[in-house]
């Protein structure tokens, strides 16, 4: 099974040709390598979405890749492989967050002190991502998984409900609760408070003004 060749790429964007990438792999490639060519971009996207600045990010990506390559044969419809991989990655990351909650109950007191940014930080880059994820860690896991999809991927309500395995009504309730918690916590971080000065719209998307 091929190892991850490089850290997950935050700039990955799925193209219409991804589902046909098997056709572009050399004939001598093994079945595992063929599968890897299709699933690696999907795993990279999901891991970056939830674990962009996490020190365990690449290890988690590798664990997911091993699991999906081994289990890919169970997918009966080849065209559904990418959707299945996204679900496996989503569930794996969700379980990771739950395990962490059991080991270390995150307290809102963790945000009580202001941590000044390092000099020359790119405020539109890693610093904002790190601070945002620090706050997302304080949300209940179910709310975090749903709200992250909306905040960082701009996913629709229907997509969030499908990914989370719940009804639209439940997804909407989780998003509302998460949004309220998130905005309360953002006010404790002056850097993010300036960035999120415009309140999120009712469905969680930035206001158009």
Query: How many helices?
Result: 8
Provide the structure class.
mainly alpha
Low-pLDDT residue spans: 1-25, 106-119, 204-209
* Principal-axes shape call: globular
Please outline the major beta sheet: none
What is the helix fraction of residues, given as a range?
55-70%
Strand and helix order:
HHHHHHHH
How many E-type strands? 0
**Radius of gyration over alpha carbons?**
18 Å
Average pLDDT confidence is: 76
Oligomeric state of the chains in view: single chain
Produce the secondary structure layout.
Layout: H1 31-51, H2 57-71, H3 81-103, H4 126-136, H5 141-153, H6 157-164, H7 168-186, H8 190-195
Helix pairs in contact: 1-2, 1-3, 2-3, 5-6, 5-7, 6-7
Key terms for this structure?
about 210 residues; mainly alpha; Arc Repressor Mutant, subunit A; 2 domains
Q: How does this model look, in words?
A:
The protein has two domains: 1-105, no CATH class; 108-209, Arc Repressor Mutant, subunit A (Orthogonal Bundle). It contains eight helices and no strands. By secondary structure, it is mostly helical. The longest helix is centred in the middle third of the chain and has 23 residues, at 81-103. The chain is globular, with a radius of gyration of 18 Å. Helix 1 (31-51) packs across helix 3.
Outline of this structure?
With 209 residues, the protein is mainly α.
């Amino acid at each position: 099974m091929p190892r991850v060749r490089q850290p997950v790429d935050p700039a990955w964007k799925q193209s219409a040709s991804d589902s046909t990438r098997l056709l572009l792999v050399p004939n001598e490639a093994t079945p595992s390598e063929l599968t890897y060519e299709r699933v690696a971009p999907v795993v990279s996207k999901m891991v970056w979405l939830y674990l962009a600045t996490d020190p365990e990010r690449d290890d988690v990506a590798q664990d997911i890749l091993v699991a999906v390559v081994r289990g890919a044969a169970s997918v009966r419809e080849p065209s559904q492989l990418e959707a299945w991989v996204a679900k496996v990655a989503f569930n794996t990351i969700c379980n990771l967050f739950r395990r962490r909650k059991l080991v270390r109950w995150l307290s809102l007191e963790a945000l009580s002190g202001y941590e000044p940014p390092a000099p020359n930080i790119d405020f539109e880059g890693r610093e904002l991502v790190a601070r945002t994820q620090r706050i997302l860690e304080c949300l209940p896991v179910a709310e975090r998984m749903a709200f992250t999809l909306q905040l960082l991927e701009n996913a629709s309500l229907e997509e969030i409900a499908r990914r989370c395995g719940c009804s639209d009504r439940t997804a909407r309730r989780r998003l509302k609760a998460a949004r309220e918690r998130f905005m309360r916590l953002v006010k404790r971080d002056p850097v993010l408070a300036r960035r999120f000065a415009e309140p999120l719209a009712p469905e969680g998307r930035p206001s158009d003004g």
